[in-house]
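Could someone model flavin mononucleotide with this protein?
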Amino acid sequence: MNETMKVLLSQRSIRKFTKQEIEPEKLHEIISAAQWTATSSYFQTFTIINIKDTEKRAAIAEIAGGQPWVVNCPVFLMFCADLHRAAKYWKDADKKVFSNHETFVVATVDAALAAQKAYIAAQSFGLGGVFVGGIRNDIGALCELLKLPKLVYPVFGMCLGYPVGEQAQRPRLPLDVIFKTDIYDESKDEALINEYDQEVKEYYIKRTSGKIDDTWSERCLKTLMEKPRYEVKDAIKAQGFTLT
Ligand SMILES: Cc1cc2nc3c(=O)[nH]c(=O)nc-3n(C[C@H](O)[C@H](O)[C@H](O)COP(=O)(O)O)c2cc1C
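Reply:
Sure, complex below.
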């Protein structure tokens, strides 16, 4: 297996970090990797904000529902979907176009692709990290905290640093469930997902010494129902997205 594939298949979210700082030249390369991602129509509709201020970190950790790794990680990056730049510098545009659902999807996807590239670059340096979607608990508060102009919203944060210890990987769905040929054939999915549910249950029992014994379906449903975030719709609109 080549080195790139080893990195790509080594996914595990890291939430505990050593005190070692990330070398500035490595961070620079990580951000460059993010920038050199494919971008819808060459739009480059994302902005990354490096959050260094400790008070801001504490506020973000709180907004995210109390996630200490936001404070403790050496680097915390906020990935924002950004149509502000486009609306400001692409002269004579019909401004409506920046508030439609298509440009919202474009900017959100751009931010996500950039983030994944940054994450892989970090992993290639032996760093680890975790995405923090919990920041969407209060998009409005974050927009204020980070002085985000209209047509910019925070999609998620990302903690990065040198990992403490090794941890088991979370099992993924069987490949046949997520990879189809020609049509959406789900005839084998139910049996495969039942099997997978048991695999995840065993994984949780082992990892938590029996404290958690959820299947994959049970665990995901709990998470979803705990935080359905219906209010994201209004927060996104308040930033000027999806109005037209
Ligand atoms: C967009 C996104 C948002 C996430 N948000 C959080 C989060 O707020 N807190 C957290 O601890 N993990 C978060 N995660 C990490 C996922 O829980 C994790 O990737 C998933 O459970 C699979 O585990 P693994 O990354 O260890 O393989 C997020 C991941 C993604 C891709």
